[in-house]
Design a protein that fits this description.
Elements lengths: L1 H35 L1 H8 L1 H39 L1 H6 L3 H53 L5 H42 L21 E8 L10 E8 L4 E5 L6 H8 L7 E6 L2 E2 L5 H5 L2 E4 L10 H5 L8 H10 L3 H5 L18 H14 L4 E5 L7 H15 L3 E5 L3 H5 L3 E6 L2 E6 L1 H7 L2 H10 L2 H6 L2 H9 L1
Parallel strand pairs: 3-8, 3-9, 6-7, 7-8
Antiparallel strand pairs: 1-2, 1-4, 4-5, 9-10
Amino acid sequence: MTTDVDALSTFLQTGLITAVVSLLTVLGVLVTLLVIDAGLAVVLLVALPVLIAATALFRHYSVPAYREARERVSAVNACLQENVTAIRVTQAFRREQHNARDFAQLAWGFRDSRLRAQRYMGTFFPFVEFLGTLSAAVVLVVGAGQVRSGELSAGTLIAFLLCLELFFSPIQQLSQVFDGYQQAVIGLGRLRSLMRTPAGTPPAEQPLTMQKLRGEVEFDGVSFGYAGGGGQEVLHGLRLRIAPGETVALVGATGAGTSTVVKLLARFYDPTAGAVRVDGHDLRDLDLAGYRRRLGLVPQEPHLFSGTVRDAIAYGRPDATDAEVESAARAVGAHEMIAGLRLGYLQQVGERGRNLSAGQRQLLALARAELVDPDVLLLDEATASLDLATERRVAAATEALCRRRTTVVVAHRLTTAARADRVVVLDAGAVVESGSHTELLAARGPYHRLWEAFRQPPQDLASTPTSELVKESAR
């Protein structure tokens, strides 16, 4: 889309004025020709059907070529960005030559589509020039005959021929901006298509504003499948109730739907069946911006925007004072880490937080969530990137925070799940077990098997067949 915006911007800044002036000139000269001599103007107008037919034929072939070129340049840019971003992975797996060939193939495809569009343009506009010259010759022959017969003066014929030159000259000028015009039109169409894409979470007709949440959460027969999942559902009739102030850990194998539950609760998606309710209200009936203002979200891979450490923490509350920012950092155990940076809270985090380690980014994400003082806290394996010492500090701070609000934790580390008020085990998008850590261990069900595998020494784990581990996890 960046190239589409650039093409549209370039045409509006440079080509649009030329196009408007040329079109007005053509119309003005045509009126002048009719005033000078209507009979000769009629001779000229005979060429217009040919010009219109040639233009229609040109557009029939050129527009698809330009559209294909825009699609191909988007693929080229996406491939370039992906390879530059993941250059370390490319180098580690020795894919430089292979990726270079793939990029070259995309680039040559773009080149071919651009050349095809240029060939169409290189054929059409010389034809227009030829048509203009031919029209001038016909007018000259007809006019010369009228001069000899005394029906037309030589001065009138010369004036008509000079104006005729002005008639076709602007059309030649249009050829200079036509390439930019076509790219702008195609880009505008793609942008319009993007802007008209309906939201996946449409706003309610009469949204209900919630100033404060008690934190009661209910999943009532929720089913959901991602758009690109081929119709396969991730959640199947999920029923789950979370009491206000309760901390619930979601546990399950990869693909069980634990992270999807968090996304539905944040209303990044709407369920395909059933309802997600908070404080008895369907999320689809709430004011979305107001509801999310009462949420705190810490994803597994937090995104930090460019700016300082202070800006990263205050992202959800830009008006927060320095004292409030520091208090939030202390609450999650991030202050000591920040104080160790060269510029402290004024340290630049870089694009996507690249100047910080994964653990440091996670700590800032926790502080960011704490600063907004949410009523419902969503932690998607928020301590996965932390070392053990930092994890212990964050776990202690998080436990204190959870006592004041409803918290949903996606926990792949079972030590995190053990600290929750209740553990919910998901399998294939449904709840298979629910209870406290102690109760589930005593039940000796799926959670007990996961816990035993978690505690199993590495040497014992290595001697266990992989197929057996998979079978145990899937039960």
